[in-house]
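Help needed: design a sequence for this.
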């Protein structure tokens, strides 16, 4: 039987207990999809699963602003990160919002005809480049916490997905067909169009801080803080020299994708942990079985691999976030 998972075998959601089970219950209600691989792949590390869901929920699903606009921002991020799984998912979710013509126009590689939609998609795409000019926003400033949270959530999710899932959103790449995309979107349309109550994911978190200034006073802030804490805890899987290498590489990164020949990347035989972390940050779709095997050996579990990938993914998120900060005017 085919599986969407690469390099790990996550535990079955049916065996989940405690907060992991609560997260899957909330996902089914608020996302409309039971046991999505995007989150199942994190379930071997509940301390990552919970805040990753919380950040996506409190920004994309329950945050201020239209769902169509935030789906466009997330699509722009996913296209910039070369994550076909997530790009296809957002196209399907645009069908769920009722924007069928827009979804199909984008699925064919088009640009939105609506100027605001086009600017939001472009804004999401440009967030990959640290320091890119992202203001003035193509959305009302009071919606910035939700839009920035959505963009940063998917900079993290894209990288985890590209590293640990296949590119096929549906078996046999069935999402290539218009009728399938439309049907899949319609199947979750009632959930997507329902107004979600902000803050419902926060009780699942362990005493998060308030988060960055751009999200102050919103549930997005604590969710972002919790994911940052959990993901960056994976640094303990690298030695001090490797952590320095990852940090320096990200500081010098200009948002570009690496060339076909990976010159300048850590050698998998000499520095396998650093190589995986840097690839997770810059080009997770380039992680190979050989890269994983060189690091894992007999010492590291699936959970350890998920934690290392999450560390590299969030190192990129943090690099992006530090250059896109903008204080939000409080009402």
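Sure. Designed sequence:
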């Amino acid at each position: 039987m085919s599986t969407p998972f690469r390099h790990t075998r996550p535990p079955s959601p049916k065996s989940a207990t405690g907060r992991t089970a609560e997260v899957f219950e909330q996902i089914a209600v608020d996302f409309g999809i039971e046991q999505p691989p995007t989150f199942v792949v994190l379930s071997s590390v509940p301390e990552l699963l919970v805040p990753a869901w919380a950040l996506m929920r409190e920004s994309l699903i329950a945050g201020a602003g239209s769902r169509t606009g935030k789906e466009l921002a997330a699509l722009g991020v996913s296209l910039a990160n070369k994550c076909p799984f997530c790009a296809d998912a957002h196209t399907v979710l645009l069908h769920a919002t009722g924007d069928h013509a827009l979804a199909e126009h984008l699925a064919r590689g088009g640009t939105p005809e609506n100027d605001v939609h086009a600017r939001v998609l472009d804004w999401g795409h440009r967030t990959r480049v640290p320091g890119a000019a992202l203001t003035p926003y193509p959305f009302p400033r009071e919606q910035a916490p939700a839009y920035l949270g959505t963009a940063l959530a998917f900079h993290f999710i894209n990288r985890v997905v590209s590293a640990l899932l296949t590119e096929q959103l549906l078996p046999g790449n069935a999402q290539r067909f218009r009728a399938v995309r439309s049907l899949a979107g319609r199947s979750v349309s009632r959930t997507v169009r329902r107004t979600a109550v902000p803050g419902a994911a926060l009780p699942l978190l362990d005493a998060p801080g308030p988060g960055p200034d751009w999200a102050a006073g919103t549930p997005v802030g604590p969710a972002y803080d919790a994911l940052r804490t959990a993901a960056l805890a994976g640094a303990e899987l690298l030695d001090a020299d490797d952590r320095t290498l990852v940090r320096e590489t990200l500081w010098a990164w200009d948002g570009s994708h690496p060339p076909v020949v990976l010159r300048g990347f850590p050698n998998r035989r000499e520095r396998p942990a650093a190589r995986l972390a840097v690839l997770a940050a810059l080009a997770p779709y380039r992680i190979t079985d050989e890269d994983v095997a060189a690091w894992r050996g007999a010492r590291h579990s699936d959970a350890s691999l998920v934690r290392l990938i999450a560390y590299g993914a969030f190192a990129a998120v943090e690099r992006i976030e530090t250059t896109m900060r903008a204080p939000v005017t409080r009402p």
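The CA atoms of residues 7 and 224 lie 27 Å apart.
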